[in-house]
Predict the structure of Anti-sigma factor antagonist.
Amino acid sequence: MDRGTLGDASSPRLGVEVRRAGGSAVLTPIGELDFHTAELLRLPLEQALDEGVVRLVVDCSGLEFCDSTGLNVLLGARLRAEAAGGGVHLAAMLPQVARVFEITGAGAVFTLHDTLAAALQE
């Protein structure tokens, strides 16, 4: 998987940077993750899993908003990663995004980290 950014002029509200760090795929969504942009995160998550990378780290430091569609993309990736012996780690969530995970209870099913560095150390 090469480092890159996904997104286009028709969906400028979300970009996703993708890179490898050791045995992890690190995905950094920047902007708003919602019904209209969720596919831009789902595709690289699935690509990493298809390539055999089962430890996914999502750096949420640039994620300004996440709705239920975005949450479902992350939950779907978690199910696939765990079925393959891995998992999805979420790092550095902004308070407004962390609140969505708190309200829905989804925070209990992900491994959460305060920083990207902490997520990569584990």
Remarks:
- The two ends are 21 Å apart (CA to CA).
- Residues 27 and 58 are 5 Å apart (CA to CA).
- The first strand starts at residue 4 and ends at 6.
